[in-house]
């Protein structure tokens, strides 16, 4: 029975040429706008009075783009060994936002860092492990940019040891009783590595309410200075600014402190930057290729609503119900066929658009963040599912309201409008996140290309491409809405006359 209904609905859909053209419109919308956006994207950076090509961010051990900028006073470590030091002083400065950015205020941003590090050479992006003191998050063990483990809330003494590929960090209040913070395994670590002391401080990033809604994000230059004493390794120290590509503001050129000062067992290290995933500051994500999703979503909604309301308007639905008395099964069969063909059309559009848009972006010199195969698969399949479920949602509305225009308007109000309001910095962040939790627009979380890291202080908001729900959880919200509306359509169809 179900199989015959599905076959009948499929034959009916493919026999109408207009539906085929409409479904093709999904792929056309994805490709047209996606390629137009990619072709018009050009990236350049400024070094003084001239524009130059933006530097490619280094890649970490996991292949992700990373920010690896810090001051390092280091020496060679051959084989196993350790380094112990006491942080006698940990201070910092933060600039005021424009126009008073030449003024300074003392202080440490929460993720300012100073501590001990073992690193596979001095190449930016090389594997490392470190035990460190932060501005406001206590002692941490961090390694390979994405891994972070909390230790004591405060400690003046730090120790880092190597045993083969295993690096272990310790902290102490008095230099006598030690607490293990944690350990990290750095695969294929060479026998000779660099060991030393480091300091760095990320920009002070804040989000403030804008005059017309949304938030205005400001980033202020910061710098830390750490004074280490009781350093138990001597001689052969080299001071260097890791990851310094020479691109800096005039303020930085004239106000940055020296790299490091070694005075016996007392070493002063000043630094600015970060040791963390690069995030969107490193370049564009692969999600930029899917700029046509909203337009394709509108096409899918129109198709979904019209798929059922056209039959009501023309009276064809009476013939369908007369041939098959089980009205509920007919409604479900239509939903399944509509969802399947919309998914195929959406997937085809993504598979056409994504590689062509990536080629255009690279051709224009745009820096693209690495996109693993798993991420590409999730974006392709997830985007097709968003379009499919949105079409089914609109179909359910059409069956309940029996009016195509009304169904389209409500579906757009539930899916597209909340997304646009939330990502265009029109609403306060809390309101935007609430909308993207409870409305079908939550499904756009499936297109989030970058994870949010607790150890990276950024305003993780929808306007920046971050969503309050996990990717598949957001898609689940849309699926629940679609299932609910199809269920209501089944109930109404059983009770009402056509």
Oligomeric nature of the chains: single chain
Q: Averaging pLDDT over every residue, what do you get?
A: 87
Show unreliable segments.
none
Query: Which outline best applies?
Result: elongated
Helix content estimate? 25-40%
Span between N and C termini? Answer: 21 Å
What radius of gyration results from the CA coordinates?
A: 28 Å
Using DSSP, what is the number of strands? Answer: 21
- What is the total number of structural domains? 2
The biggest sheet amounts to: 8 strands, antiparallel
Please give the structural blueprint:
Layout: H1 2-15, H2 17-39, E1 45-47, E2 50-52, E3 66-68, E4 70-78, E5 81-95, E6 104-106, E7 113-119, E8 128-134, E9 139-143, E10 147-150, E11 157-163, E12 166-172, E13 179-185, E14 192-200, E15 204-209, E16 215-220, E17 222-229, E18 238-242, H3 250-255, E19 260-263, E20 266-271, E21 275-277, H4 293-314, H5 316-323, H6 327-363, H7 373-401, H8 404-423, H9 429-438, H10 471-495
Antiparallel strand pairs: 1-2, 3-21, 4-14, 4-18, 5-6, 5-11, 5-17, 7-8, 7-14, 8-9, 9-10, 11-12, 12-13, 15-16, 17-20, 19-20
Helix pairs in contact: 1-6, 2-4, 2-6, 4-6, 4-7, 4-8, 6-7, 6-10, 7-8, 7-10, 8-9
């Amino acid at each position: 029975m179900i199989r015959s209904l599905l076959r009948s609905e499929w034959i009916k859909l493919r026999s109408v040429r207009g539906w085929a053209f409409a479904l093709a419109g999904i792929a056309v919308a994805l490709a047209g706008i996606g390629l137009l956006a990619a072709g018009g994207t050009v990236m350049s950076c400024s070094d003084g009075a001239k524009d130059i090509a933006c530097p490619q961010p280094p890649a970490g051990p996991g292949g992700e783009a990373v920010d690896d900028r810090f001051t390092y006073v280091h020496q060679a470590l051959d084989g196993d060994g350790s380094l112990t030091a006491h942080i006698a002083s940990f201070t910092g400065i933060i600039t005021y936002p424009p126009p008073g950015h030449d003024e300074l205020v003392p202080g440490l941003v929460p993720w300012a860092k100073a501590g001990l590090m073992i690193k596979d050479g001095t190449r930016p992006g090389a594997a490392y492990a470190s035990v460190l003191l932060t501005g406001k998050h206590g002692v941490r063990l961090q390694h390979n940019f994405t891994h972070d483990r909390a230790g004591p809330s405060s400690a003046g003494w730090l120790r880092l040891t190597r045993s083969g590929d295993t690096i272990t960090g310790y902290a102490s209040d008095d230099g006598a009783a030690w607490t293990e913070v944690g350990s990290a395994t750095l695969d294929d670590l060479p026998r000779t590595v660099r060991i030393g002391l480091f300091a760095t401080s990320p920009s002070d990033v804040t989000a403030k309410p804008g005059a017309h809604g949304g938030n205005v994000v400001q980033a202020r230059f910061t710098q830390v200075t750490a004074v280490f004493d009781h350093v138990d390794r001597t001689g052969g120290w080299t001071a260097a600014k890791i990851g310094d590509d020479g691109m800096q503001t005039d303020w930085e050129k004239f106000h940055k402190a020296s790299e490091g000062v070694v005075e016996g067992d007392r070493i002063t290290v000043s630094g600015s930057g970060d040791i963390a995933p690069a995030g969107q500051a490193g370049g564009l994500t692969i999600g930029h290729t899917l700029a046509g999703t909203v337009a394709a979503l509108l096409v899918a909604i129109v198709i979904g609503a019209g798929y059922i309301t056209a039959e009501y308007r023309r009276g064809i639905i009476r013939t369908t119900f007369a041939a098959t008395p089980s009205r509920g099964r007919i409604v479900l069969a239509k939903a399944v066929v509509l969802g399947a063909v919309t998914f195929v059309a959406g997937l085809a559009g993504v598979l056409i658009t994504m590689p062509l848009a990536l080629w255009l972006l690279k051709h224009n010199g745009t820096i693209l963040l690495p996109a693993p195969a798993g991420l590409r698969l999730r974006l392709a399949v997830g985007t097709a599912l968003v379009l499919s479920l949105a079409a089914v949602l609109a179909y359910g509305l059409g069956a309940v309201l029996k009016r195509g225009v009304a169904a389209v308007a409500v579906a757009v109000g539930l899916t597209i409008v909340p997304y646009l309001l939330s990502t265009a910095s029109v609403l306060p962040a809390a309101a935007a996140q609430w909308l993207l939790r409870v409305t079908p627009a939550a499904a756009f979380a499936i297109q989030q290309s970058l994870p949010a890291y607790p150890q990276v202080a950024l305003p993780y908001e929808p306007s920046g491409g971050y969503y309050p729900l996990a990717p598949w959880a957001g898609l689940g919200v849309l699926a629940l809405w679609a299932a609910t509306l199809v269920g209501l359509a089944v109930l109404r169809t059983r009770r009402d006359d056509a």
